[in-house]
Amino acid sequence: MADNYVEMVTTTGVGDIRTHPWLRAAVDAFADVVAPIGPVLDVGCGPGTVTAYLAERDIDVSGIDLSPRMIDHARRLHPQCTFRVGSATDLDLRPASLGGILGWWSLFNLPRHILPTVLSSFAAALRPGGQLIIATHVGDDDVVRTEAYNGVPVTWTTYQWQPDQLIALLQQAGLRTVADLRLAADQISGPASVLVAQRDN
Hints:
- By secondary structure, the protein is α/β, with parallel strands linked by helices.
- It has one domain: Vaccinia Virus protein VP39 (Rossmann fold, 3-Layer(aba) Sandwich).
- Helices cover about 30% and strands about 30% of the residues.
- A hairpin with an 8-residue loop joins strand 8 (about 175-185) and strand 9 (about 190-200).
- This is SAM-dependent methyltransferase.
- Keywords: Methyltransferase, Transferase.
């Protein structure tokens, strides 16, 4: 479904934070904090839209995605950025090596019992003062999807979370929540949550 998704993003602007002032503000604030601390990794970068946005702000950023086809598109659309194929569950990140990590609408497909381990690996990879920013769908359901993006057959589950549940997981991982943005449903998607958490030591 990567081709259909990229076509949707490039023709409609869906997923481009420039078109959403609250999301843009959250990413801008995150960028301001992490820029002097160290490099940034965009986990689940898709076609690299947010990765490129951060690069335009002179952030040392790279992107990683599970889908080789998404990475092909990211490299084509944003040749100035670095992208590679990889899974959030198997990143082999060096301890205290990153200033920031994004899980920007990319972690909601991780099963509930897997997410805490991934968040702990993110926390360990952050330098003191480094931050993790997450954007995800709010709710209580495990939504099984059989098609996406103009009818492409898929088999995946979207795991919705309540913000307070995610905050508890971030705290368990050793991170301190520094921002909690809750967005109402709009004409494109249901309610959403943006959380920023920091490693203090």
